[in-house]
């Protein structure tokens, strides 16, 4: 490189050789005949001048070297800046460029299975109190961060039975299943057609040393439909029936509700004048029968999804029967008054 040649040319010891020759001549002159009285003085001056000139040359060479070094450093910095700009421009279009990216963007470049040497930990944002209606499917969601090569197990606490390890099932009860999506942190215990005996505590356990676990509570409820009426109803022929059924504890956001008369499904097409109005989100249903007839008598049952049903019995009576019932009640009410009147008459006719 150019600066190396310049340094060699600058550091050539020519001035030092010139100084040495001059010093030799001065020393010879000092030792010549006729000059001995001042020989020591001349020798001391020659050595002093020589040392002074050598120091001057040394500092000049040092300044030259420092200047060349500064120039070299400046060139190096310029090259580094050019290289950095080139790499910055090329990496900015790469999917792996993240030098100035945020932490969330960098985390997206790291596979979920990579634990980075960190210990597993639970994500506590999942629901750990699960309510399931009788006969429905319950799902317990467990999320584990930085799992690595460890295994996740589900354990039933009441008998310490290991139900699943990974996605493998270790129970004869086929209602218990393990579910996991590849490259996700979620491990799900699925309980199909839950029964009252399934209620209790379940543990999501990670095979670390020592083991870590998180408890989940499963509650099984029995939903019941309810008809808002007496168990037996007497309806006059020709009038209307309006029955309301509710199922507030039915599972799920929407509930399908049905009406039966005895064993037959009641619908709008059963006969004219029947209307079924259901609000699945409100979990209510209304059965309206206009101008009831004697054939409408029977047992009416309301049923909802995964809920116990409820029933009422409807009696349809004729108008004549209704009037006869009213007359019979009136006669029974008048008999006491007749007896009292007879007693008064007997008292007045008794001789004095």
TrEMBL record:
One of its GO terms (cellular component) is neuron projection membrane. It comes from the Eukaryota. InterPro entries: Ig-like_dom, Ig-like_dom_sf, Ig-like_fold, Ig_sub, Ig_sub2, Ig_V-set, Zig-8. Residues 120-207, 210-313 form the Ig-like domain. One of its GO terms (biological process) is synapse organization. Transmembrane segments: none annotated. PANTHER family: DEFECTIVE PROBOSCIS EXTENSION RESPONSE 4-RELATED, DEFECTIVE PROBOSCIS EXTENSION RESPONSE DPR -RELATED. This is Blast:Lachesin.
């Amino acid at each position: 490189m150019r600066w190396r040649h310049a340094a060699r040319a600058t550091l050539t010891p020519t001035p030092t050789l010139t100084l040495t020759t001059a010093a030799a001549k001065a020393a010879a002159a000092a030792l010549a005949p006729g000059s001995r009285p001042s020989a020591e003085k001349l020798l001391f001056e020659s050595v002093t001048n020589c040392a002074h000139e050598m120091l001057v040359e040394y500092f000049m060479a040092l300044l030259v070297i420092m200047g060349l070094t500064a120039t070299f450093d400046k060139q190096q910095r310029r090259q580094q800046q050019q290289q950095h700009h080139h790499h910055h421009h090329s990496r900015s279009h790469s999917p792996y460029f993240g030098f100035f990216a945020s932490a969330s963007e960098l985390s997206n470049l790291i596979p979920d299975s990579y634990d980075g040497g960190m210990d597993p930990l639970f994500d506590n944002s999942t629901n750990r109190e699960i309510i399931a209606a009788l006969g429905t499917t319950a799902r317990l969601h467990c999320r584990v961060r930085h799992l690595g090569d460890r295994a996740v197990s589900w354990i039933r606490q009441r008998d310490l039975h290991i139900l699943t390890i990974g996605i493998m099932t270790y129970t004869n009860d086929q209602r218990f299943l393990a579910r996991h999506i590849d490259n996700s942190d979620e491990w799900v215990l699925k309980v199909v057609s839950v029964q009252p005996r399934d209620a209790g505590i379940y543990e999501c356990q990670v095979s670390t040393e020592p083991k870590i676990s998180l408890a989940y509570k499963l509650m099984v409820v029995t939903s019941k439909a309810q008809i808002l009426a007496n168990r037996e109803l007497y309806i006059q022929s020709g009038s209307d029936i309006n029955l309301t059924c509710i199922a507030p504890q039915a599972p799920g956001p929407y509930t399908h509700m049905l009406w039966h008369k005895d064993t037959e499904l009641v619908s709008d097409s059963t006969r004219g004048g029947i209307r079924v109005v259901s609000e699945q989100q409100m979990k209510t249903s209304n059965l309206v029968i206009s101008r009831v007839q004697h054939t409408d008598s029977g047992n009416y049952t309301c049923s909802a999804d995964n809920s116990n049903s409820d029933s009422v019995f409807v009696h349809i009576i004729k108008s004549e029967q209704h009037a006869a019932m009213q007359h019979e009640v009136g006669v029974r009410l008048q008999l006491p008054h007749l007896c009292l009147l007879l007693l008064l008459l007997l008292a007045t006719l008794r001789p004095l």
